[in-house]
Amino acid sequence: MAIIYTVPQNHVVLIKRFGKHSRVQGEGLHFKIPFIESFKTVYEWDGAANKRGHFIELSEQQTDTPPRQCQTLDNVTIDANASIYWRITDPVKAVYDIDILPKSVADIGLNALRANIGKLKLDQLLSERQNLNLKIAAQLAESGAKWGIVFTRVEIQEINYSSETAEAMMQEMTAERKKRALMAEAQGEAEAELTRANAEANATIIRAQAKADALRILAEAESTYLGKLKEKVNEEAAGQIMISQKYIDGMQTISSNPADKVYLPNNFNGLFDVSGNGK
Hints:
The protein is α+β, with helices and mostly antiparallel strands. It has a domain at 41-161: Tetrahydropterin Synthase, Chain A, CATH 3.30.479.30. The chain has helices spanning 91-96, 101-117, 122-127, 129-147, 163-232, 235-254, and strands at 4-7, 11-17, 20-25, 28-31, 37-39, 50-51, 55-57, 61-64, 68-71, 77-88, 149-161. Strands 2, 3, 5, 6 and 7 form a five-stranded antiparallel β-sheet that branches. Helix 2 runs antiparallel to helix 4 and helix 5 packs across helix 6 (235-254). The model has no long low-confidence stretch (mean pLDDT 83).
């Protein structure tokens, strides 16, 4: 058993005295008392986060979990695995407070992965993988503090599902695309119909306004014309002239179509009597 030893950079050793933890030695040259002091070994870690069984590594570690069967919120069975990144911050806790640290890291990561997948539908799981990574890492933080480690990040590596599920997803995507296309077409037709309706309404308003303006102008012209007539003849004669003019205009309108037969009165004397005495 060596009395003088060297601890590599970014590693520590745990020294036991009479089988009880004594101290933590960092990188550099050290010595220990023979037969009284010894190294705490972690061969059961199977080479993870240690060298030669007693040099505890403080740099970031990667643990790849085995595939685990999980059930999504919409009852789709998938196989998923993840890579968990962590590093030791308290070697004493990491060695003495948890049995086989690397195995426990993989187990807790898988449990968190399965629990979070069960809260999401398959399409959410596929589209929100990064958010899921962050949630799992946050959940692992509490356990990490108890074990003297910190979880730096979690990355889901693979999400596998059956061919039947893949076919169903493809059909759903096709149906969704058709639905969006139909909705877009219907919306376009509705907007076009609304545009036509607005145009027709505006045209009707414009025509009505133009007709109203024309009638107003005509009424003003007739009023002016009647006033001028009254200056030349008496009021009764002026009124008779206006009636006669309306009659002539009406006859012109009803006789404008050559195909129509028009019957004229035999006597126009009373109609055109502008003497004022009706004779």
